[in-house]
Specification:
The complex is a heterodimer of chains A (about 475) and B (about 325).
Chain A (H helix, E strand, L loop, with lengths): L2 H40 L2 H35 L1 H34 L6 H30 L5 E3 L2 E3 L3 H5 L4 H31 L4 H35 L1 H8 L5 E2 L3 E3 L2 E3 L4 E3 L2 E3 L2 H7 L5 E2 L13 H31 L7 H9 L3 H15 L4 E3 L3 E2 H4 L7 H38 L35
Antiparallel strand pairs in A: 1-2, 3-8, 4-7, 5-6, 9-10
Helix pairs in contact in A: 1-2, 1-4, 1-6, 1-12, 1-14, 2-3, 2-7, 2-14, 3-4, 4-6, 6-7, 6-11, 6-12, 7-8, 7-10, 8-10, 10-12
Chain B lengths: L1 H28 L6 H8 L2 H19 L1 H10 L1 H23 L6 H29 L1 E2 L7 H6 L5 H28 L7 H24 L3 H8 L1 H12 L1 H9 L3 H23 L2 E5 L3 E3 H4 L3 H31 L10
Parallel strand pairs in B: 1-2
Antiparallel strand pairs in B: 2-3
Helix pairs in contact in B: 1-3, 1-6, 1-8, 1-13, 3-4, 3-15, 5-6, 6-8, 8-9, 8-13, 10-13, 11-13, 12-13
Classes of the chains: A mainly alpha (about 475), B mainly alpha (about 325).
């Protein structure tokens, strides 16, 4: 394995790992805050239990995400010192703001986790909200740096050096808005479906309907569904943006070899660079021209206009793009069904077939996020800063990079397994503990099946003295 | 402006060494104490926050002094990788240990990863800092892997500095745990551990200077000529008796203050000896002025820093106030 490929693989693995944890870490706090809000509005204990259970998940994902984020800030230099030497002063600004946002997020999460009894309830709720706001803000800020790599701005490149640096212009580069928007909506969508899926799966497996899982699935599903329905709009914005800024990336995503007017959209298919054809794709005439430039007869630039040594890897880009769009469409479909059921037929949301569909959606959003990042990162190749610096010129000169790559891969693989195990145990522990509560005659537990159809009933599942009650957790 | 950024970089490193150092140390001495609950209570929830000082220092380095950051991460790739592995192991193991409701046989592995990671990171951070002071990094591309990527940091001086940092952190950790107990009116149980760590730290510190003297390191020559460096290190030495006294008499706040002052003096003395040099290549010396980013960058960085600190410091103070305000029941009432 070449040094460059090893460095790129290590970066891909580190980012691919980090992105899952940050997606959850920045959007799950919104769920946890929403549950606490519902608790204060309705006084139903089930929402407080939900907020607590979710906050434990947030804590684990946040902590692992913080660690993998620290690792990345080292890896940028360890793997791409030349890039950092030139880009650091240009694009450092969003990183320094991101530091503030991240620190605020950590502090607010500390307040939320440890402040259940020590803070007035609205201060506690506000701290949960701050976790979510700061999380989304740090996501948007980090993406400014990636936007800069796709759409460099705020400097002039003269003789291999950046002069006239304007960090503010670099931060608000042209790719920043559409990329951040797309990523943040994706994070809400994949987390919403992921959380809803876990609750649905538990209801299916345990063959009983308890309030925590029922309400948990409903809240998370609404968040995921709304985001999934917004995502195609943001995707359209991104596509038009990429068509203008990075025609090579768009051509690779769509496997468009020949520049043409009225370009068709290809669904599926395997592109072959050698004879420049796509095998087995379904063509929708004029669609690509329409989507990229809002005009069915517009010209779309194909790979033939791009020098051969500046082509992104077509196969990876095209396939990853198909995966992302396919999953996105599916999630929007499931999301609209879910919202319709919630509106017209709420009982049907408990139907095992619906639960099974929601459970099957658990990993989909995350796969789409990984595929989307593959499109944007691989689609930028061979550039690390589009049109300015090639990836191969930025990599560290240290030989033998395959060993650091293997060790990081091993560690992250192990971490993924352990995180999975811990999360599973957290869910099981929460359930069995509450079953034990039920057995000991504490009917106030929201984890049993609720015999009372009226959720506002104060004799079951409500909490007359929320500030004094003490539930012992493991 | 570069001076201001450099000063904040130093402050971030001091904060990391003072607050984060105690966290590392608490993990190191954990095998020798009775209950890990003490460690959990002492670390959480500020634990995540302490780590951000390191991230701040990194961001300041690559935004403010990009060439320094690029050279450091190139030449010190291997020790920095060890630092990273330690950070991963320690950070995740602590979280899992805290939140895993039924760890079973995994508990031993969590403990191992937490403790081993807590030694690995300070050891190699010390080695990296020592390499900045002692090495002349080879610029000849044909010099060979060992000469370029291992030899500059793999020195007796480097390992002695690494051990010094570990011992210092262990002492900080023992003192932190003891003062938690003292604040609650309990006797100090970690006295002997703290004494061993303290003696080791003093011994390693002496060893570091002896090696620097015998190896004729340019850093050391500069250090003995700098009144600031000498003053700071003298003050650090003079602070040893007050630290011991505060510890013996169970005065937690005096102990914390004296130790923080001592650590600050050590770091300040170290950098005063190095100033204005950041690192040395075999054909030139990289001073902070040479490595500094353009003014436009530094200006926006400073604005971001000031606004950031105005947001962070009050909220951090509030968090500590809320958390330590009722430390007596903190072990069991969080979720």
């Amino acid at each position: 394995m070449s040094n460059l490929l090893a460095a790129r693989s290590q970066m891909a693995i580190s980012l691919g790992f980090h992105i899952i944890f940050t997606c959850i870490g920045m959007t799950m706090p919104w769920l946890m805050a929403a549950a606490e809000w519902r608790y204060y509005r309705t006084n139903q204990v089930v929402y407080r239990e939900l907020a607590r259970a979710w906050s434990k998940g947030v804590a684990v994902f946040f902590a692992v995400g913080a660690v993998s984020g620290t690792v990345l800030s080292f890896e940028l230099g360890l793997l791409w010192p030349t890039f950092m030497k030139h880009a650091g002063p240009i694009i450092g600004l969003p990183f320094s703001w991101e530091g503030t946002a991240f620190f605020t997020e950590a502090i607010a999460l500390g307040l939320f986790l440890y402040g259940w009894k020590r803070l007035p309830r609205y201060v506690h709720f506000a701290s949960g909200l701050v976790v979510g706001i700061a999380g989304v803000a740090s996501g948007a800020l980090v993406i400014a740096a990636n936007g800069f790599m796709n759409s460099p701005a705020g400097f002039r490149w003269v003789d291999g050096h950046a002069i006239d640096i304007d960090p503010v212009a670099a931060m608000f580069n042209r790719a920043w808005f559409s990329e951040s928007l797309h990523m943040i909506i994706a994070a809400f969508s994949c987390t919403g479906f992921g959380v809803a899926g876990v609750h649905a799966l538990r209801m299916l497996l345990r063959r009983e309907r308890n309030d925590v899982h029922r309400h948990g699935m409903r809240l998370a599903l609404i968040m995921g569904a709304v985001a999934a329905l917004l995502q195609p709009l943001s995707g359209d914005l991104s596509a038009k943006d990429v068509a203008k800024r990075q025609p090579a990336k768009l051509a690779a995503m769509e496997a468009l070899y020949k520049t043409q007017r009225g370009a068709p959209l290809l669904l599926g298919g395997i592109p072959n660079d050698k004879d420049q054809r796509v095998i087995g794709a379904i063509e929708i005439p004029y669609m690509l021209s329409f989507l990229a430039h809002a005009d069915p007869h517009a010209e779309v630039i194909g790979l033939d206009r791009i020098p051969r040594d500046e082509w992104p890897p077509t196969l990876i880009c095209h396939v990853a793009f198909q995966i992302m769009v396919g999953i996105g469409t599916l999630m929007a479909l499931v999301g609209s069904i879910a919202l319709f059921l919630r509106w017209r037929r709420p009982q049907l949301l408990q139907d095992p077939r619906i639960l099974a569909i929601v459970a099957l959606c658990t990993p989909l959003g995350f796969i789409a996020v990984e595929a989307g990042w593959t499109v944007t990162e691989v689609g930028r190749q061979p550039w690390i800063i589009h049109g300015i610096m090639k990836t191969k010129d930025a990599v560290t000169p240290m030989p033998g990079l395959v060993w650091p790559m293997l060790s990081i891969t091993l560690v992250y693989g192990l971490l993924a397994v352990v995180t999975w195990a811990v999360m599973t145990r957290l869910v099981h522990a929460q359930e069995s503990q509450n079953r034990a509560q039920l057995a000991s005659g504490n009917t106030a537990s929201p984890w049993d099946s609720n015999p009372n159809p009226n959720p506002k009933a104060r004799d079951n599942g409500t909490d007359p003295e929320p500030r004094k009650e003490r539930i012992s957790h493991g | 402006m570069a001076e201001f950024v450099l000063a904040v970089l130093l402050v971030a490193l001091v904060a990391y060494t003072v607050f984060g150092g105690a966290d590392f140390g608490a993990a190191m001495i954990e095998p020798f104490i009775v209950t890990r609950d003490d460690v959990d209570v002492a670390l959480a929830p500020v634990w995540e926050a302490n780590h951000v000082w390191l991230v701040l220092a990194l961001v300041l380095a690559f935004v403010g002094f990009p060439e320094f950051y690029a050279l450091t991460t190139t030449y010190l790739h291997l020790p920095l990788l060890a630092v990273l592995l330690g950070i991963i192991a320690r950070g995740t193991a602590f979280t899992f240990r805290h939140y895993d409701p039924n760890p079973g046989s995994l508990r031993a592995w969590y403990n191992l990863a937490f403790r081993a990671g807590s030694v690995l990171t300070p050891l190699f951070l010390g080695i990296c800092v020592a390499a900045l002071a002692s090495a002349e990094f080879p610029t000849d591309p044909k010099a060979g892997f060992y000469a370029v990527y291992v030899a500059p940091w793999n020195t007796a001086f480097g390992w002695a500095t690494g051990l010094f940092v570990c011992a210092l952190f262990a002492f900080e950790g023992a003192a932190l745990l003891s003062s938690e107990q003292a604040l609650q009116g309990l006797p100090l149980p970690y006295v002997s551990i703290a004494r061993v760590a303290h003696v080791t730290a003093i011994g390693c510190g002496a060893l570091v200077f002896a090696l620097a003297y015998f190896k004729h390191l340019p850093w050391f020559t500069q250090l003995v000529q700098s009144p600031w460096a000498l003053g700071a290190l003298a003050l650090a030495t003079l602070l040893i008796p007050p630290v011991i006294q505060a510890f013996d008499r169970g005065r937690p706040w005096r102990l914390r203050a004296a130790m923080a002052a001592q650590v600050t003096c050590i770091l300040f003395g170290f950098f005063a000896g190095q100033f204005p040099v950041l690192l040395r290549l075999d054909d030139r010396v990289l001073r902070y002025q040479d490595a500094a980013a353009p003014d436009a960058t530094l200006r926006t960085l400073i604005v971001a820093l000031i606004v950031g600190l105005c947001v962070i410091l009050p909220s951090l103070a509030f968090l500590i106030h809320v958390y330590k305000g009722s430390a007596d029941d903190s072990a069991h009432d969080h979720v």
